């Protein structure tokens, strides 16, 4: 059975500030997707939030980039924005950068990760969702999951993974893409993945079979809007078990937190903390950046789940380490490298401040 899994997300208003989502907004989204399920457009759906980002997880048979599915997501976000406006939530409609839908939701603000595949006897899926960070944040964990044998022992000892994976990397500034095979081209791959603000890992494929293994959202809000509106807060779908990494191999990179861009005003470096659904609220200094992991089994397109995969004591130490990293970085206040480097501040609110002071600069 061919299934398309679409994860489409947007910040349509925060409660309180940019910290979390209001239950009425989530309820409105559920009602909208329930109608689409009754009408037969969706097989199933799961609605949740990560911080102030509303997440629509949908299964259907319309394929990727389906106008009908994208329109459903857009109309749902617009309806939820009305609720957010009525409650006067913060930044109501923040990520909806257009007045009208035209064929695809791509380029209108929301983040999109989709994949089409033939459902296996047991189709295990992990969906990562983040708040207070930028697309590209999955580069490091996806590299570890699909190319690092110290993370994924299956690359070494499982014959169906031993030949490796293919990585599709997008240059988000120049709108170009390139693919690399790992392990053969690992060093070439890492040159680009190591600069996640320019090169985002879009998809991963099982090399031998060509089957899709992972897909992430790479939309850049600031590049679409031409100004700072909020962070991308990306999502990522990973298939698991069989010829793909085990659930534990997919979660393992988050046991040693890495540093990502985002946090307060989208202008800082901070640790990406793996948290439970309940703790997916951006609180201290509007953060620190957070990731949740929702696990599902698919049953003829029905979403069996979600299992809250980071809700486990085995990630407590990672959380503690992330908090220590957060403390350490916060000491630097407005100084780099806590604050983002100058060239990246040009995509936030800094140009407005520098413009005001421009006339006071004198030649030396
Ligand atoms: P089970 O024997 O419980 O299926 O586990 C197999 C496995 O590979 C765990 O990583
Ligand atoms: P969001 O991108 O999650 O809305 O956060 C924006 C922000 O400015 C946080 O301080
Ligand atoms: Mg927000
Ligand atoms: Mg957000």
Protein described:
- By secondary structure, the chain is an alpha+beta fold.
- The chain has helices spanning 23-38, 67-86, 139-147, 154-157, 186-193, 221-225, 247-251, 316-330, 342-345, 350-357, and strands at 2-10, 44-50, 53-60, 111-118, 123-131, 165-171, 176-182, 199-206, 212-216, 235-240, 259-262, 268-271, 273-274, 290-299, 302-308.
- The radius of gyration is 20 Å and the shape is globular.
- The N and C termini lie far apart (70 Å).
- The mean pLDDT is 97.
- One magnesium ion binds at residues 11, 14, 18, 52, 91, 94, 230.
- One 1,3-dihydroxyacetonephosphate binds at residues 246, 248.
Question: Mind summarizing the main beta sheet?
Answer: 9 strands, mixed
Radius of gyration, whole Å: 20 Å
Shape field: globular
Given the structure, what is the number of helices?
Answer: 10
| Broad structural category | alpha+beta
**How do the helices and strands follow one another from N- to C-terminus?**
EHEEHEEHHEEHEEHEHEEEEEHHH
């Amino acid at each position: 059975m061919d299934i398309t899994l679409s994860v489409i997300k947007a910040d349509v208003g925060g409660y309180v500030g940019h910290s979390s989502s209001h239950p009425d907004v989530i309820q409105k989204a559920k009602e909208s997707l329930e109608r689409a399920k009754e009408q037969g457009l969706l097989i199933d759906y799961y609605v949740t939030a990560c911080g102030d980002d509303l997440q629509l997880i949908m299964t259907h048979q319309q394929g990727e980039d389906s106008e009908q599915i994208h329109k459903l997501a857009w109309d749902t976000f617009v309806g939820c924005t009305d609720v957010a406006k009525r409650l006067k939530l913060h930044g109501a409609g923040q990520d909806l950068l257009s007045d009208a839908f035209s064929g695809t939701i791509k380029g209108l603000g929301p983040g999109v990760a989709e994949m089409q595949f033939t459902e296996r006897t047991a189709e295990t899926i992990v969906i990562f969702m983040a708040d207070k960070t930028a697309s590209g944040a999955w580069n490091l964990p996806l590299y570890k999951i699909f190319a690092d044998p110290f993370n994924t022992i299956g690359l070494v000892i499982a014959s169906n993974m031993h030949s490796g994976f293919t990585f599709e990397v997008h240059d988000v500034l120049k709108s170009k893409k390139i693919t690399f095979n790992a392990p053969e081209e690992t060093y070439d791959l890492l040159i680009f993945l190591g600069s996640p603000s320019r090169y985002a890992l879009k998809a991963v494929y099982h090399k031998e079979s060509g089957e899709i293994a992972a897909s992430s959202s790479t939309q850049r809000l600031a590049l679409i809007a031409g100004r700072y509106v909020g962070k991308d807060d990306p999502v990522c779908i990973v298939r698991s078990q069989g010829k793909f990494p085990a659930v534990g191999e997919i979660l393992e990179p988050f046991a040693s937190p890495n540093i990502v861009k985002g946090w307060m005003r989208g202008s800082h470096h901070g640790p990406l903390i793996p948290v439970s659904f309940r703790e997916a609220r951006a609180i201290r200094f509007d953060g620190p950046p957070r990731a949740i992991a929702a696990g599902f089994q698919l049953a003829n397109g029905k979403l069996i789940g979600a299992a809250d995969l980071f809700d486990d004591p085995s990630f407590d130490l990672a959380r503690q380490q992330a908090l220590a990293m957060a403390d350490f970085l916060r000491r630097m206040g407005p100084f780099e490298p806590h604050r983002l480097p100058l060239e990246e501040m040009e995509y936030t609110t800094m140009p407005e401040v520098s413009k005001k002071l421009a006339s006071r600069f004198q030649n030396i």
